Amino acid sequence: MKQTAQASSPQVSATASVLRGLMALPDGILCVASDRRVIFLNPEAASMLGVRATELVGQDFSHLGRLGGYDDWSPVLGAVAERMNGEFLLRSGLRSALLVTVRRAAPDNQAMVLQLRDLEVFDHARRRASGVQMPRESSGSNRKMRPDFAKQRQISRYLDTIMSRGERALLHGAGVLISGESGVGKTEVARYLHGYISEPSNPFVVVNCAAIPETLFETELFGYEKGAFTGALNTGKKGLIEQADGGTLFLDEVGEIPLQLQAKLLSFLEERTIQRVGGERQKAVNVRLISATNRDLKAMVAEDRFRLDLYFRLTVVELAMQPLRETRELIPHLIERFTQFLNQRLQEPMRIGPRLLQVLNDYDYPGNVRELYNILQQVVVLGEDEVLARLDAPQSRGGAGDADADAPEVARSLKEMVAEYERGLIEQAIRRHGSKRRAAAALNVDIGTIVRKTRVSS
């Protein structure tokens, strides 16, 4: 018995490894046992069929004929029943087409394997691979660095699955909601998805819903006509939706949209027309919509702070971004990439010692990717020892002593504390780099900002 258990262990491990690989594939994979039961489907197959994996596993394979809205599953079901190989094209509506490849699992095995391919997604990937209509990448010398999602997707299977779903959703015109904590990179994911499906010249308009005053929200989003109100421009003004015509509208912090304006946004999403404030004409606008939030929209719906119908309109496909502490496999890549970017602006390259590297790999990053980048900027300005001391301190990990440590500062305003912190950073950067201009480069700000803030502190 002991020998049998030892002999089967490698086989069990190999089977588990194969299943994990099938779970990560961009194609849908579905397996049917000899007794006609569905015994496995990966997340992509479940997504294509519009069903949860747990709802289909264990069911008779004839249930497939009622899923996904495709026209006629009978040839596929017949091939599975007769254990015959074949390729079948299924259609749903005018655009969507699914290529289903049916194969016997093995000559001596009664199980059948189905491979599902969304042809529109596959054709788009083929064009990209052949160099046709490839989106432009931002160069490393640009002031703003863009994530290398191609590399990150090789490192993280979870991220690759998320991005594949987003690509497929946009190709089919479905609304995408990117959810996750602040700093996980929701805007960059939206920008990547826009570039995946759009021409480089198509607009990508970011609307930070939390930054627009409630009284200005309607005019900012929908625009206004000449003379619509006192102080209006004589030419009128295009709203942000109109500016995104032919491209992508990204609604960041969508949970902050005022409740009374959610109905008007819903009307636009249903009719795809807008009416400027003070205007009488409806104008058709062709935009692709991506939204993002770090809030629980379902809870807001339950509290009557967010419209249920708008929630369903925005969340045809939800991409739930994991925090950095749950995707630690990405941390070494991000450290290397951020360090290379920062070193382009430095005369003396920054090097990270083994102790700091260990701390950075173990840190929980409550501020996610944005916090990691900020920490490396602090290394440039303050030096490795000071950053190490801060990261090793209990309060940096959310310890119980945080509130007491901040108690002496209560009498001072937030603005005063921020100004003092800025002055300290600038002064240390000037001392470390020897001039205001080099300090400005290290802090990634213009020289005018350094001059102005040092004048105030002197």
Short description:
This protein is an alpha/beta fold and 458 residues long.
Flag low-confidence runs. Answer: 1-9, 133-143, 395-412
Shape: globular
The number of distinct β-strands equals 14
Radius of gyration: 27 Å
Strand content: 15-25%
**Can you give the helix content as a percent range?**
40-55%
Termini gap? 82 Å
Mean pLDDT, rounded to whole units? 80
**Major β-sheet annotation:** 5 strands, antiparallel
Structural class from helices and strands? Answer: alpha/beta
- The largest beta-sheet arranges its strands as 2-1-5-4-3
Number of DSSP helices? 21
Key structural traits:
alpha/beta, 15% strand, 458 residues, 5-stranded antiparallel beta sheet, 21 helices
Would you write up a description of this structure?
The chain has about 450 residues and is an alpha/beta fold. It has a 5-stranded antiparallel beta sheet. Strands 7-10-13-6-14 form a 5-stranded parallel beta sheet. Helix 14 (about 330-345) packs across helix 16 and helix 19 packs across helix 20. Residues about 1-10, about 135-145 and about 395-410 have low confidence and may be disordered. The chain has 21 helices and 14 strands.
Topology:
Elements: H1 2-24, E1 28-32, E2 38-41, H2 43-49, H3 53-56, H4 74-82, E3 86-92, E4 96-106, E5 109-118, H5 119-129, H6 149-155, H7 157-171, E6 176-179, H8 186-197, E7 204-208, H9 217-222, E8 223-224, E9 237-238, H10 240-243, E10 248-252, H11 259-271, E11 273-274, E12 283-284, E13 288-293, H12 297-302, H13 308-314, E14 317-320, H14 331-343, H15 354-362, H16 368-382, H17 384-392, H18 402-406, H19 414-433, H20 436-443, H21 447-457
Parallel strand pairs: 6-13, 6-14, 7-10, 10-13
Antiparallel strand pairs: 1-2, 1-5, 3-4, 4-5, 8-9, 11-12
